[in-house]
Design a protein that fits this description.
three-stranded antiparallel β-sheet, 8 strands, DNA polymerase, domain 1, hpI Integrase, Chain A, alpha+beta, 8% strand, 16 helices, 3 domains
Amino acid sequence: MKVRLYKRSEAELVFEFPNVKEWVARLRQIKGCRWNPELRAWTIPYTLLNVERFVVLFCDIDYLVELALQEECHLLSGEISEGKNSNKKGKVGRKTVDFERSSWNSYTESLLVYQLKLRGYSPRTIKAYCGHVSRLYRYYREHPELSVLDIVSQFSYFLLSRKLSHDYVNQAISGVKFYLEEVCDSLEGSYSYVRPKKEKKLPNVLGKREVMKLLSFIQNRKHQAIFYLIYSSGLRVGEVVRLRLGDIDRERKTLHIRQGKGRKDRLTVLSDLALTVIQSYIEDSRPEGWLFPGQQPGSHLTERTVQKVFEQALKAASINKEVSVHALRHSFATHLLEDGIDIRYIQEFLGHKSTRTTEIYTHVAVKDVRRIMSPLDRIVESSQD
C-alpha cells in the first residue's frame, strides 16, 4: 500500500494513505487534523508537537517522506528515506536544523518556542525572539551570498543602518544567537558578532500638572482606574492589564504585582484616590477574575488597548511631548524622588534589582535644580540693579 507524507506549505503537512479505519482513528488524535476533499488526503498542522505525535502513532507503519521534508525535519529523517520508519534517530529538542537549508515556518518556529519554554522565558520574550528570527530568515533570503559565520554581524549592521535602537539590536542578537545555538547545528562561538554599545537615554517624564491634566481627559471609569493605577503605583502596562481582584489589599493599602518583569513578585503602594476610583469601577462593572477583562471571555484587556487610550488622552489634553504609557511609570518614580522619598523604597516599588537602575531618575528629578539660577538669569538680574 502506498503511504506518503509530504509538505504542502510552510504550515501544513499532507498524509496520503488508503482508507484504513485504524489509521484514520490514529490520525484524528493529532490536533488540527482534517480531511481535504480536493487532495483526497489528510492534512495536519506542521508543528514540532504534531510531527512528534505522528511519529509515535505511526511507528509501526512504513511510509515515504519527500526528501526536502526529511532534510528540514530531523524527526522524519534517517531510515525513513528508505520507507522504513525509525523514530530512534535522535530526540526532540536537539540541535538539528541546518540554517542554510531551512526556512522559517511553523515547524522551525515551534522548535524555537519549545526550547524557550523549557528555559522559562516569558511569552513577551518568546514573541520577540520569534520575530527577530523570522526577520533574520527574510534578510538571509535577500542576501544568499552571506555565510552563516557572518550572518549575525551582517544582520546586526543591517538593523543599525535602519536607525533602530541599540536595545532593539541587542535583543535581536540575543534571539538569533539563541536560535543558532539551541535549535540549529551552529556551535557556540562559530560565528562573529559585536554588540552595539548600550545607549544611555534619560526617561521621558510628565510634570505633575500634566499628569493630572491627562487623567482629567479620561472619562471611561474602567480606563480611569487603569491610568490612576499605572501612575500612582508605578506599573508597567503588562502588569496593570494582568491584575486580578485579589491583588488589591485595601486594608494594607498595597498592590500585589505577580510575576512582573523578570518573573518577580513585588508589593507597591496603593493610592487612596486610586482605590476610590477602582471601587467605583468595580461597583459599576462587576468584573470577575481579571480586574480589567478583555472582550474575549476569560481574557484580560490587551496592552494595545491601553496604549491607544493613552494616545487619545494625550492628544485631547494637548500635551505635545513624545511619550508613551510607560512615561507614567517614569513620572511616578521621578515625582517620588522629588518629594524626598528614599530611593531604596522607589527601587522596591518599581521592582528593580539594583538601586543603580533606579538612580537614572536622579538625572531628571528637578528638586534641587530649581534652586540653581542660570548664569544668564544672574547677568540679567545684576544688570537691572
